[in-house]
Amino acid sequence: HDAIQKADLEDAEALKRYATQKEKSEQLVAENIDRQDEAWRKIQELERALQRLGTERFEEVKRRIEENDREERRRVEYQQFLDVCGQHKKLLELSVYNCDLSLRCTGMVEELVAESCSAIKSRHDKTGEELADLRLQVHQEYLEAFRRLYKTLGQLVYKKEKRLEEIDRQIRTTHIQLEFAIETFDPNAK
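^ Paraflagellar rod protein, sequence as received from the core. Prediction below:
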């Protein structure tokens, strides 16, 4: 913006200088014509003055043409400057737009990653809970099976001890009966 404002000020000053010089130039041409009229009246005496004035007029017109050429070049350069500024402005606006778009895309990707991480964590937590529940269930099943087997073992040990007591009783009874039978059938055994 500063460069454009500076160029606008320079353009305004150049136009003012050009207008002043043009006015001055037109004034000089008008004076020249007046003098030529006077010279024609005094043509014989003032022939040298007429040639000099013609030369002055030629130089002024030449200067004016050069000034016109310079002004035209200045206008073209100024327009080129404005065109370049416009192109740069469009490129900068496009860069800003692309940056905004990149920021939005980055935000969306960040949001997607955060949601994905959250979903993965949730899934991991749920799977962990399910595994913990399953582990507890398996431990409970093992404990229940252990209790049944332990109870069965206790019953078997109890039955074994009872059976051993019964066998021991039968052995004692059989032993007593055997001794009684020996005494009964063999009176000399004692």
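The helical segments are 2-41, 47-185.
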